[in-house]
Inverse folding.
């Protein structure tokens, strides 16, 4: 069942309201269906990752300076200053010269994001870059597994057993950073988008959860750790 995501859904998942949510919801609804991310279950997995990587949909740019990525050949950071220039941006925190270059190629303008990295901080490109990452890694198929399924994934040279959410988290983050938060956001997304049986939106009107209760949202807190970008 295709659904429409609202700013209210994002606020309920994150536990707070932010200024970015309205624009993000708009672009999620425009772009995600083009990548076949359009069911409650697929959005639950997608938004759980996005909520963590953006610090509850607060930022589309990594808080850290990016110096830790300096000289990372695996990210294509071969020129001085690449670590800072191509630090994490977008709702999945795209990182590294090589990934910025590939996104430009997909847009038909090779150096689009190389010349202007901050474009990935715009909601349109922030969502689009995550959709591209999701599709190229085949994560929609993983998202549609039952939560109880045990999947195999190669991690640091070993084959390990993981849940679908753990598989997606490792694919996006490259490690276990924020895993418990991702699980928490996933569970909340299921309450908001699945358990409340989100109704399809009439043409021209946003969908709202059926019989959804009024949610009391927490006040924003200062973030203690920087979001870690996928590697």
């Amino acid at each position: 069942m295709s659904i429409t995501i609202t700013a209210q859904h994002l606020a309920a998942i994150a536990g707070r309201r932010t200024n970015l949510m309205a624009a993000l919801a708009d672009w999620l609804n425009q772009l995600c269906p083009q990548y076949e991310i359009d069911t409650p279950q697929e959005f639950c997995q997608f938004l759980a990752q996005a909520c963590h990587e953006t610090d509850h949909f607060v930022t589309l740019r990594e808080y850290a300076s990016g110096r830790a990525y300096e000289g990372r050949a695996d990210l294509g950071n071969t020129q001085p200053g690449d670590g800072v220039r191509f630090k994490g941006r977008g709702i999945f925190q795209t990182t590294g010269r090589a990934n910025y270059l590939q996104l430009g190629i997909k847009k038909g303008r090779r150096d689009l994001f190389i010349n202007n990295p901050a474009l990935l901080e715009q909601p349109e490109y922030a969502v689009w870059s995550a959709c591209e990452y999701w599709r190229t890694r085949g994560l929609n198929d993983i998202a549609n597994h039952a939560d109880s399924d045990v999947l195999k994934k190669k991690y640091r040279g070993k084959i390990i057993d993981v849940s679908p959410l753990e598989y997606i988290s490792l694919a996006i983050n490259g490690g276990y950073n924020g895993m418990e938060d991702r699980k928490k956001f996933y569970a909340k997304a299921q309450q908001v988008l699945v358990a409340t049986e989100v109704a399809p939106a009439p043409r021209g009107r946003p969908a709202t959860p059926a019989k959804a209760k009024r949610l009391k949202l927490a006040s924003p807190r200062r973030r203690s750790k920087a979001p870690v970008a996928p590697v």
Residues 103 and 129 are 7 Å apart (CA to CA). Residues 201-226 have pLDDT under 50 and may be disordered. The longest strand covers residues 151-155.
